[in-house]
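Hi, here's the filled form for the chain we discussed.

Project: internal
Contact: R.S.
Residues: 121
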Amino acid sequence: MSQTHALLPILMNSLYLTPVLLAYVAGIILAVARWQRHPTVSMLVLIACLLGLVVTPLPGTIQVWLVQSQSAQGMAQLSWVFSLIGILSSLVHALIYGLLLAAAFQGRASRFLEPAAPPRI
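And the returned structure, exactly as it came back:
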């Protein structure tokens, strides 16, 4: 298989992921731009977006590479590897969403914890 033909599935996977990757890049830019005003929130968003930028295209790229490098006899064993890749990818994406949720609610005062004002008569 030629090198160009072998890269086509990886490039197509990257093309499909472009909107998500652009959202991560936008998150990185916003986190850096707002670092002075909201350092903790910006740090959480920056970590989540950098992690997402690296991890999001990785499973598809690894899977394409594994399929192209395997013979027909080894394809049955790939199902276990693909399952493991999927599980790890889901766990990392859950971490990313957790970081973004933590950033969304970081530093917010809770109205429920503040004492209520006495009623006016």
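Let me know if anything looks off before we file it.
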